[in-house]
Amino acid sequence: MRSLSEILLEKKMDHALLTSLASVRYFGGHTVSIETGPSPFAPLASALVWVKGQEPVLFLAEIESADDVDAGIRTHTFPGYTYDRPLRSLEELTTLLLDTFSRLPPSIVGVEMADLPAYVLESLGLNCRHLKFQDITLELAGMRAVKQEDEIRAIRSALKLCDLGQATVKGRISPGLTELEVFSEMRKTMESAAGTRLPLLADLVSGVRTAGVGGNPGASELRNGDLVISDIVPRHQGYWGDTCNTCAVGEPTDEQRRLFEGIEFALYEAIDRVRPGVRACDLDSQLRQRVSALGGTYPHHSGHGIGLTFHEEPRIVPYNQTPLQPGNVVALEPGIYLEGQWGLRLEHTILVTQTGAQILSEFKHSL
Amino acid sequence: MRSLSEILLEKKMDHALLTSLASVRYFGGHTVSIETGPSPFAPLASALVWVKGQEPVLFLAEIESADDVDAGIRTHTFPGYTYDRPLRSLEELTTLLLDTFSRLPPSIVGVEMADLPAYVLESLGLNCRHLKFQDITLELAGMRAVKQEDEIRAIRSALKLCDLGQATVKGRISPGLTELEVFSEMRKTMESAAGTRLPLLADLVSGVRTAGVGGNPGASELRNGDLVISDIVPRHQGYWGDTCNTCAVGEPTDEQRRLFEGIEFALYEAIDRVRPGVRACDLDSQLRQRVSALGGTYPHHSGHGIGLTFHEEPRIVPYNQTPLQPGNVVALEPGIYLEGQWGLRLEHTILVTQTGAQILSEFKHSL
To answer: For B52-82, what is each residue's pLDDT tens digit?
Structure first.
């Protein structure tokens, strides 16, 4: 597993300015809150600066808690919220960054071009003409595709919350409840267990909506005979978990049982095939063939890496010829959807080990 | 109320490329989902392009629903999620933007520098050397400080959800429940009424935590004698509502009653003083004096504009000499905090009318 210094060296870069939520957590330990969108107080809440030969520095808006910053990371705060003078958080952060970067000799700085506000790059560009800024996003994504021990532990914690969520959905669904009511119970159980609010991406759809893969819970009432897809993706301490179950309100039909068992078989067969060196596209193709043999298909990936974002490398998709590596954490999620009727999908998150796969999610899918 | 064309003319700009969530909703009608952070599929989900003399065009990632786009807005979609080829949403959007901007004669484009990814501005800069890009953020914020009729209706809808949320908190608090459990009930009521998930910023703190102004709900159990601050800020169809109440678990003390009544008096007195021409700083100062006379203070603004963001102009703060104008929608929120003991805060959202203020939130504060 390569370090940031190695990546910079390989890409002939000298320094780095990292501003994505993933990088700030990965290299600095700090998790930025995301549930309410961009902050009017601090549009960029945090930035990590890595100057060649120096320890990294995490610039952190004062409104952010520094409790989770990794030991050994130097922290500089900058104003976030102010009421005695105008809000100028982004400008003040940029001034601090200029102070660092303007002192450097001519050199190349790796940046994350999709996650850096144009304001910052323009100011740096105008005031530091001796520096070149180059995108390092893809290299960082490649690096993060192989997880370290502490990352696997963090993903396991998020998956424990998924397990709880799945048990709640399975235990609670009954005719007359709305999707939102089931969702609310599920989220409450998970948040109570975590002792905190959780950013939560979730498909929770019932009835004919299951034919459309997913979506947010709505006001639809569950009825006897409905399937419910619950794809639960919470973020806990910066890391995401991801599992999906499909269950029936009342008694499932024979056809629903047949396809549930078929998808479950396909999923476990794929998990059995996982080992280092297996190409993502081959895993994808085998899953699609198996679902095709059941008489259906799915209009989405077969799986994806998960960690500091809820969809990352390695993507398990037709074009991706990358071989799996030990340390990849992958959510596999074959499904089958009958147009205008219903659909189902089952998902586990697994770790690629030296010899195969270990399932990190502990719940049992149950129709 | 000025139009975008008037602002561009006044600032000697010709065109605009608008990428903030607020602008996309304001000029295009589309609300971008925010609860789960930046999308790995489409880092920039939407952009509005306004070329001089032409109708505006909304560029929209395919994963976004176009159902809410304003009639009369031309929509161009670009790939968001793909599984048959690599994710390149931002690159593909940028190609479309280049296609528009590279054809223009030498001219000036207004952009939102804090809400535009550096990737986009750099590509435009390198490939359209005949164009200048200038920040238009402050002018747009000034424009949005005066609300139109449909915006006031939207804010009222969000405030109705706040009213429901406040009633739920007041009705539910009892010893032994955790902050998270009360929060969960409150959110469920609001989401059920809205029929959809709601982005929700909320202070829900109890006991000694109320002395610290606010914070997310946690695992603390309510106890007899606690105060509970519930500051509820949901986003509904793009617009935010904002109210705050403070209530007691069990019987409040005489001192709690005295300060509750004092803050309530201060709030209504300030509302009575609101009219066009009153300067924000004077309203702020009167509120601070009144709270000071009660024997305390508050380490935050006295109020703020609310609309497409949860904190905008006019800020009711010491430095802001801007006079209030008809159409401003302002959340006023004096509070008082006794260090290490408890605090309380009360808030209403009001509309500045031609002759005074109209309270848009309908609940009654109740200790």
So the answer is: 999 999 999 999 999 999 998 999 999 999 9
Residue B229: burial class (beta carbons within 10 Å; 0-12, 13-18, 19+)? buried
Indicate the fold that domain B4-144 takes in CATH: Creatine Amidinohydrolase; Chain A, domain 1 (3.40.350)
Determine the residue among B32, B97, B121, B220 to mutate to test chain A binding: the one whose Cβ has the most chain A Cβ atoms within 10 Å: B121
Distance from CA of B56 to the nearest CA of A (A): 22
Q: Using CA coordinates, name the residue in chain B closest to A31.
A: B37
Q: Residue B75, CB half-sphere, CA atoms under 13 Å: how many?
A: 20
Chain A: give the shortest CA distance to residue B65, in Å. 11
Report whether pLDDT(B2) > 70: no
Tokens of A294: 């059941």
Instruction: For an interface test with A, give the residue of B17, B122, B186 to mutate (most A CBs within 10 A).
Output: B122
Interface test with B, best of A81, A90, A113 (most B CBs within 10 A): A113
3-state secondary structure of B200: strand
Give the span between the Cα atoms of B33 and B47, in whole angstroms: 14
Mean pLDDT within B164-179: 98
Distance from CA of B181 to the nearest CA of A (A): 7
List of chain B residues whose C-beta atoms are within 8 Å of the C-beta of residue A191:
180, 184
ipTM greater than cut 0.85: yes
The pairing of strands B107-111 and B15-18 is parallel
CA angle, residues B32, B33, B39, in degrees to nearest 5: 100
Pick the CATH number of A149-359 from 3.90.230.10, 2.30.110.10, 3.30.365.10, 1.20.1250.20: 3.90.230.10
Angstroms from A316 CA to nearest CA on chain B: 9
- pLDDT tens for each residue of B74-97: 999 999 999 999 999 999 999 999
Rg (CA), chain B: 23
Partner-chain contact A197 B191, CB within 8 Å: no
Nearest one of B239, B248, B156, B228 to B186, comparing CA atoms: B228
